[in-house]
Design a protein that fits this description.
Two copies of one chain form a homodimer. By secondary structure, the first copy, chain A, is of the alpha/beta class. The first copy, chain A, contains 14 helices and 16 strands.
Chain lengths: 424, 424
């Protein structure tokens, strides 16, 4: 497929959308076995196409180097043997997950004899807009197909040759397995107008899922006339309560902050109850410095530990994605809850406490997608939660909150089984 | 409260939103018993304030008559003794429903000992924008409060005095029962700019629910920068399959079309399989005419029954809300499914068939909120489905599809209970 920069994008998205809508309706009634067979073939074909993938990938790498992208960015684009094998393995794992479509829950028989239930059904067509790593093409295609959805993929221009090659291999394998044509489509142009067209194609696309940097997600949220499943910041907080086991608190804080820094479930803020601050603040600060973490503290923190900079108001809501932590002493449990609900990004928060009542109250009162008790914030992801693969973590409240896995890529419909009943 | 037409609406919505956000967070942790006690007092106070309600209502009726509103429209505004009693009874029924907040599902213990579950939680703040009948003020306030949400209500200008009186009575009773101030608020101005402010107040409002005519709902969908739970048209279809019991089909068609016409779950379209058309079309057409239903048929329908007008392409997607039906003969089950998915409004469809396979395939293949087998389309509502009261019927696919009851006014959060686990 050639990369045509002059495509009439409106016509293009309309054609792709029409095809996706039809394909989605056909896919909705295809049994799990047929979808899984196709997924396994897709995985095999990726591995057996390693050479082709790497030769297309080389074009992207070449362009990236010429355009002066940083070494780290270039590396994220690279399709090594191991990364291609991992992509294939990811698809096999998705094939092995339970099929969400058709699950029936809450069936009841009404007094008039009607049997009424909720039945899980595909959303229809997913519009996936992403940047950078080409493996997202494979992940998203597999998750959408398994959940009975057609998908229109729009990857970043920096990976266009790699993405096209992956999509073509997946599409061919799907077709060979009897999956309707149009279930997996990648927008074959780098024209940014295509994103705008997708965001308003409400006739063809049921939900938009953006994955990438803040500017991409903000643009999508602003322009979309279609529901969006998004996550903006992950400003996660650990709160060390007055009844905390301080040894456990130290391990949880260090793990939440330093296990990986560039991820949305890393801790960015630490709250310490005043009753344990005298003992805990110097202890944790020394440890954080040992791990090369820069500390930005409130005034009271700085009184207890001099070697930290003064936090500004921006620090309390910052997502550093780096070896930096904002630290604040709070006078009460209620202050901690209020602080988190106000400054946090509603992603993941963790309390460290031995007090039963506090743990239950924290779980009820914190308005976040993931509320943890006595464990690291780093656990909030689809694999750790036992959902298998995820397409992202939603900090929205409607439809999907937290990891977006197969279930979150579906909807429900009401099914009513009657024997001639009419309403009187 | 006076009706100030000159209010600075931006400031007003900001103040109401700030108050609602705070109140919502407080309400989220209030136990079911306290909410139910308040609901019962609210119901009692409505009844004991009948005189006051009717004197405020008289101002609206007076304005309505002077402005030349139709008699039917004026009647919809009227708060009779019976309607006030019914409003109160509705609130008592909501008090008696199970509380959705705090329900824990899918709890599992992971290999590392973490206990992980989904917990149902309030959405936060609901923005309710509605027209006409003042009873919506009471319904919406009670449903939102029971589901742990604060609500900002914006009723139609034609009912402003009635709505203000209802809201004041409910707010006073709630406050007397210890419910946080700000849980129930009604926008005290008829300035339409207030709607625009609500639709962009994403900092304070988590979801907008419009209830009213098509123009209101379209404006909301277009302008909102907040998720919207809406339903546009109810163009419901009955499909009479070749394996239908034709006697049952007749009763179901007549009930779906004529039981009530001005409602979204009334049938607007009838599809008949060609194999039974010769027998069924003349039979059902005669009956429909007896019920004063105007028939708009396809060419083949008109060959079998002369006394009907020719349907145009607009008829297949029309929501008549009247004694009119569009009728079409289809050559196959697949044609029926394709026709419904293409022209329907994804609200409610019903198949009449004795064939097991057809019934199961219809349920899988139809892309609508409610899929019925061998029963009237008129059953698709919250009470008939056993949910108790509803705030509307959503034809959206995300978050809530079908009747929007208490559960649909909540979200879920992930709860993770640990004992010091860190990620390695």
């Amino acid at each position: 497929m050639s990369v045509d920069l002059e495509t009439d994008v409106k016509k293009l998205i309309h054609e792709m959308g029409t095809k996706a809508r039809r394909a989605g309706r056909q896919l909705a009634v295809i049994p799990p076995g047929a979808k899984n067979k196709a997924l396994l073939l897709m995985a095999d074909r990726l591995v057996s196409s390693t050479e082709r993938l790497q030769s297309e990938n080389a074009k992207d790498l070449d362009r990236a180097e010429k355009s002066g992208l940083s070494g780290a960015m270039v590396d994220r684009l690279r399709l090594t043997d191991a990364r291609i094998a991992a992509m294939a393995q990811g698809i096999r794992e998705i094939a092995a997950l339970p099929d969400p479509v058709g699950e029936v829950t809450e069936m009841q028989t009404r007094p008039n004899g009607l049997r009424i239930a909720r039945m899980r059904a595909p959303l229809g067509v997913v519009g996936m807009i992403f940047e950078s790593r080409p493996n997202v093409t494979a992940d998203a295609a597999a998750l959408c197909m398994k959940s009975g959805n057609a998908v229109i993929l729009r990857g970043g221009s920096e990976a266009i040759f790699s993405n096209l090659a992956i999509a073509e291999i997946l599409t061919a394998a799907a077709a060979e397995s009897g999956i309707p044509e149009g279930v997996i489509q990648l927008v074959p142009t780098v024209d940014r107008a295509a994103v705008g067209e997708m965001l308003t194609a409400s006739e063809f696309i049921d939900v938009i899922i953006p994955r990438g940097g803040r500017s991409l997600i903000e643009r999508v949220a602003l322009e979309a006339r279609i529901p969006v499943l998004k996550h903006l910041d992950g400003n996660c907080t650990v709160y060390v309560d007055e009844f905390a086991d301080l040894e456990s608190a130290e391990r949880i804080v260090l793990n939440s902050k330093t296990h990986r820094t560039g991820v949305c479930n890393a801790a960015e803020t630490l709250l310490v109850h005043a009753a344990v601050a005298q003992e805990f603040v110097p202890q944790i600060c020394s440890k954080l410095l040992e791990h090369n973490v820069e500390i930005r503290g409130c005034d009271r923190t700085r009184e207890l530990f001099a070697d930290c900079t003064a936090a500004t108001d921006e620090d309390w809501s910052a997502e550093y994605l780096d070896l930096i932590i904002a630290m604040r002493i709070v006078d009460s449990f209620d202050d901690a809850v209020e602080f988190i609900n106000h400054y946090g990004s509603h992603h993941t928060e963790s309390i460290v406490t031995k007090d039963y009542g506090r743990s239950m109250e924290f779980v009820r009162a914190i308005d976040s997608a993931c509320v943890h008790v006595n464990c690291s914030t780093r656990f909030s992801d689809g694999f750790e939660y036992g959902l298998g693969a995820e397409i992202g973590i939603s900090t929205d409240k409607l439809h999907a909150r937290g990891p977006v896995g197969l279930k979150e890529l579906t909807t429900e419909k009401w099914v009513v089984l009657g024997e001639g009943q009419i309403r009187t």
